[in-house]
């Protein structure tokens, strides 16, 4: 009877959460399997693991009786491709694959929107005037898209050209312009005069404060916001407005409610302007890892302004790099390339 019990349970390991709950996993499972067993978001935001109170690498094989505590961060960029090789459970593998599938779709939506907006500007229109609900519905019906995101995703993966989309989007506008040239000129004059009296503050930071002119605006060095981040302004004493990311822990609305001010990125932020970003890359401490990281950043034609690295007794390497990027999409492309490097576990944007 005892030998039967051994056979039944030999393919499983039983580990504990910090609260004492028992988690059953296949033998050979790693902390990432444990994380996805707890919750998808725990898995997607994992950056490390403590086993029996000691930091262990993410490919550590769990043993019966281990107490597992996952380290997570809301600033994590999600799973690495290497996790698919490390994990044992189909649940973890499926969740990781779902993350990348959604991420690729999200990237195509962003890329497609940028391509359509660029085509609109090239045609002599503004995206705000063209991408109205009425015009978008015309395109959705014409090309059998179920949503605006589907339309942008199709453009992003080159299923349809941006020119085809913009031709349909601007069809009514162009027809109206042909019929009412004089009215169009009048509207243009009114818009031009309205823009001349509208007060906006624009600085080298690429950030503006509506209705306020001649105000000093600077980007906060604690969270280093870049175009595409959600931002908030904080009115300082004698140093103008300090711009932070909305998720920056150094600006809490309840503590600074009277000092917060609405700010936004300029629509025409120059691609030539660079913004400082700090990244932390963790991975297995192997020979050549740092060189691989620097090579990927160099191949993306991104300037590196600082780099440092260290490793611990558990063969976990931590590499800190400071780079100059143009906008949030530029940053995402670099992060994706870094996550594809062999033995890289996580890539995280840091806040001081």
From TrEMBL:
The keyword Glycosyltransferase does not apply. GO terms for molecular function: kinase activity. Keywords: Coiled coil, Kinase, Transferase. Residues 278-352 form the ACT domain. CDD domains: ACT_RelA-SpoT (cd04876), TGS_RSH (cd01668). Residues 11-72 form the TGS domain. It comes from the Bacteria. Pfam families: ACT_4, RelA_AH_RIS, TGS. One of its GO terms (cellular component) is plasma membrane. SUPFAM superfamilies: ACT-like, TGS-like. Residues 166-193 form a coiled coil. InterPro entries: ACT-like_dom_sf (IPR045865), ACT_dom (IPR002912), Beta-grasp_dom_sf (IPR012675), RelA/SpoT_AH_RIS (IPR045600), TGS (IPR004095), TGS-like (IPR012676), TGS_RelA/SpoT (IPR033655). Belongs to the RelA/SpoT family. This is GTP pyrophosphokinase.
